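USER: My hope is that you can spare some time for a protein that puzzles me. I am handing you a single protein, as its sequence and its fold in token form. Walk me, if you will, through where the backbone shape changes along the chain. The protein I mean follows directly.
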Amino acid sequence: MTPTTATIQVNDITLAYKEWPGEKGPVICLHSLIGHKGAFDQVARRLSPEYHLFALDLRGRGDSDKPAEGYGFAYHARDIMAFVAALGWEKFDLIGHSFGATIGVYLASIRPMQVRSLTLIDGGADPKEAVLAAMYPAIERLERTYKSPEAYLEAMQNLPYYAPWNSGLEQYFRDHLEELENGRVRPKSSAAAIKRDLDVYFYYSMCVHFPTLQCPTLFIRPQNGLLGDKAHVLDEREAAAFVAWIPHCWRVDIPDVNHFTMILSDNPRVTPPIRAFLSMIFEE
């Protein structure tokens, strides 16, 4: 189905979102720390029209407002619940990638009567501090300008995390660009806003939320790290402990993909397990 793009006013800011019409849901999709709503384009295309999906640009990202303050999981949860209230939903399902998955854990733990199910795509737990610290250089790339969209795409294609390159990745990065007055381009998201989120991240402990999750939860992990067999967001020991702490959690491992390519590809490998999980939820 062809999505529509819209905005909504919540908590004195504008949130942008994409909507794919569908019969079951609604399903809210939350992107990674430096991502945007376009991360779910290929997944949503395959889940709609069976499911009704909404992919948000979190505050500070994409086409949403970028206030100076108001970052951290509690603020994002407040925005999402205001979005839910504005659309008049009593219950909803959440799909989150990376940082978006962690927001999902936080939100499902504090609003257990409203979150019907939770899908966590390589996220939801606290990464080691070394992993968090390693994210700052990626954020700093958002502050750079590029002479053309092609120059930006070339820079992204040369990063090892996005191999093998594909048309899904290319469209995702093209959609993240804004043109400046001098003809140069830069990513739409605010590096300052995302740094603020990351600064706050160091003071959270998600493990206290795991036992409180009441909804069925699916955790999807890539077998590859960001550097082949290295640099997993959650190593095997961490992933196993994470799943064991959540009361109603299933785990799926996907071969031959990493943290990004599992969702950013022409035919995302996360789609079949998500569809199977949602089918189970809506059959109950």
Remarks:
- The chain has ten helices and ten strands.
- The chain has a mean pLDDT of 93.
- Strands lie at 4-10, 13-20, 24-30, 51-56, 92-97, 115-121, 177-179, 185-187, 217-222, 249-254.
- The chain has one domain: 4-283.
